[in-house]
Design a protein that fits this description.
This protein is mainly alpha-helical. Helices cover about 45% and strands about 10% of the residues. The chain has three helices and three strands, in the order αααβββ. The chain has a three-stranded antiparallel beta sheet.
């Protein structure tokens, strides 16, 4: 398996694990993930050196698609007071993506680790 396909499979598994941990791995959400994988396959073929960035980009793609359809995902588990808010993937374009509280900036979990 080439490095681009490996990154796509790894990213898909990590995002699916986080969707499952949040109880959001229904058919619609998985379809959005598959659509993101298809899009990022083309992207990674155009820029193979960016394969390590694919998992974080997949998470961002799914997060953006869900925001348009059903609202925030994933919701921050650290902040229990005030308005619920989502986590963000950091770095936006980099290796070893992780979820961060958008209010406090605290790291919550690595991508794929929300259920831990």
């Amino acid at each position: 398996m080439d490095v681009c396909e490996e990154a796509l499979h790894q990213g898909r598994a990590l995002v699916l694990a986080d969707l499952t941990a949040a109880g959001a791995a229904g058919p619609e959400e998985v379809s959005l993930l598959e659509k993101a994988v298809t899009h990022r396959r083309w992207w990674s073929e155009q820029w193979p050196e960016g394969a390590a960035y694919v998992p974080g980009l997949l998470a961002q793609d799914v997060q953006d698609a869900l925001a348009e359809r059903s609202g925030r995902w994933p919701v921050c588990p650290l902040c229990t007071d005030g308005e619920p808010h989502e986590l963000r993937v950091e770095p936006e374009l980099g290796e070893d993506p992780h979820w961060v509280c958008e209010r406090s900036g605290r790291q919550v979990a690595p991508l794929g680790g929300l259920g831990s």
